[in-house]
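Final report, closing paragraph on structural work. Over the funding period we assembled a curated collection of sequence-structure pairs, and we close with a single example.
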Amino acid sequence: MSLRKQGYKTNPENEDIPLKRFLKCDTCGKYLRAYKAKKNNEYYHKCCTIGCKCNKRADSLHSTFEDMLSEYNVEFDDDMKSLVKLQMIATYNQLSEQKKEDTLEIERQIKDLKKKLERLEERFIEEEISKDMYEKYRTKYTGEKQEIEKQLGKIGYKVSNLEYYIDSALNLSSKLATVWHSSDYINKQQLQFLIFPD
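Its predicted structure, as stored:
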């Protein structure tokens, strides 16, 4: 066994094979794996299902994938781009309105809990309640307040530089294949799953 060449090096973030575990075999539907052929030193994608003979060169799949991405490019003239940008801002603001209302409601709940904590402290100082009662309700109200504050942190309806992000999105959408081709492994993966989440 020691004479047989076993073992292999894995590199989960190999720049040469960003489509690994992203593309699926069109025959059996399993994710394609990647390997480097010793004979020609080229990368290939292969289906690991027994009996399924799907085996494609990586560079060929990359070219096909870039062609497919190009079909999703969105091209605008300046007038259309301005209209799309205005609509995106309006849509964002409309969607943010509900978040704004939710934020106001959570802020009201936090304010009520602060009042309860202040009142609880006053009652304890004035010896209207025992220390045990004070600790019990202080812990309860403080816990509730922290949970609500977490919800508030998750909402985050305000975005600074909204126009900048919309311009970036429109710019990206006009050259998907070029951006994918020139990106590193991580950014290629992010773009792949952004355009094709399934």
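The mean pLDDT is 86. The helical segments are 58-70, 78-125, 131-155, 162-173, 176-182, 185-195. We thank the funder for supporting this effort.
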